[in-house]
Amino acid sequence: MNQLKSSVKKHALNSQDVYQTLNIKQEKSFFKRFLIPATVFASLILTVFFGSLVNAPTQDNELDVANAIAYFQLEINPQFEIAVDEDGYVLQIKALNEDAETFELEIYMDKKVEEVVEQLIALATEKGYINADDDVDDFVTISSILIDEENEEDIENIESIGYKIRSRIEASSEVDPRTNVVYVKATIAEKMEAEGKEVPLGMYVIHGMVDVDGEMVPVNEYVQNENALKKMNKAGVIITKRTQDQVNQPIDPPINDNDDEDDNDNTNDPKDNSNEDNNTNDPQDNSNENNNNNEGSSNSRRP
Amino acid sequence: MKNSEDDFKNIYYATFDELSKYVYFRVNNLEDAQDIVHDVYLDYYQHVFKKNKNVDHVIAYLKQMAHNQLISFYKDKQFKTIQTDILDEQLDNIVAPDDVELEVFEKFESERIWQAVNQLNAIERKIIIGKFRFDMTFKEISEQLSINENTIKTTYYRSLQQLKKFLDK
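Above: the input entities. Below: the structure tokens describing the complete assembly.
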């Protein structure tokens, strides 16, 4: 083929170039579609039942996770995973990265998860992971993952526990009001995918897809991106902190749909099927318990 | 049985040249042709192939899709006709075919040649691309452009000479 012909064939309506722009994804093979998720799921089950033999955490503190109904992942940048029972008591807490290993986690066992989350955020602030005085907005992501997504009772329980966490943070005197706390609902599948890609779950859910060059981006680095707040607002609930004079005032759960509107202003998450309105019918809510306990006492043991 | 990506690839590569040619000679420039061809295959993939719809004559189906895209394309843009009337005086200085051998292009890089092709006028470029990209005969190009075959020939040879001039600069 002469050079002119070759040049024209290369540049004019080149079939390979156009095909690439179609961006048609390779169909997943049987191996990718079934075997990998099955293996990951099996490892998750093994982790739950056999004390983390697989995917062993760097630090592990647990009671009996067989009763766990959900996990919460807290990303500050220290990153923790907390297994809770139906009443929101901590059954297991793991450090998911090196920063989290510097925290003593045993002391949080069998405490209410909302109290633990509050204390961990406060401690992370003390340790300098959150610095409200610098130029960078601080974000904390709390992701809830329900283990049995079909179980109606568990769905109600996780809604209730999630509400308590949000209320607790909102009313907390220990969490700096300038810290943005994002509450995200994730699924087991998203958790496994995030683990597979080695990125924080909250980031994974908010981003939809992991960045890019495959590099894990900590929360505090990620938020330097100007679009971060917008993305987080879309994907989760930004817990708006109260002003100082409101701190420690009781937070009443919403009473009806209309009253909910203000609370839900920031809720644009299309995935959020449960809707924040569920809080209105929270069967287990005990707002006194939520709000009279802001000191984060370590005496709050299971009744 | 569900279609696989390989099935789509086979259809794509088997039909691409014919569909591209069909579209290219119905729009003014290459970029528009590429966009339309791209959109046709994407629509086909999403709305026909992935849904396992049965299509008897794929290329005819794709051309119909392209036809619809072209209607939509010209609805959005003001139609510009290609300048097809070549004046006799413009043809006066056309050299004989043998004067411009294709071998002269061998010493130039592909990118440079393509830059030169882009300096040709619309009709010259159409003929060059028809000839070298789609391996069309003068008669076929003449039919596509509704221009006399002899005019196509003379324009073709003049285009080669032009290209050589651009490259020699």
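Note for the figure: The interface with chain B takes residues 2-13, 15, 18-19, 21-22, 24-27 of chain A (CB under 8 Å).
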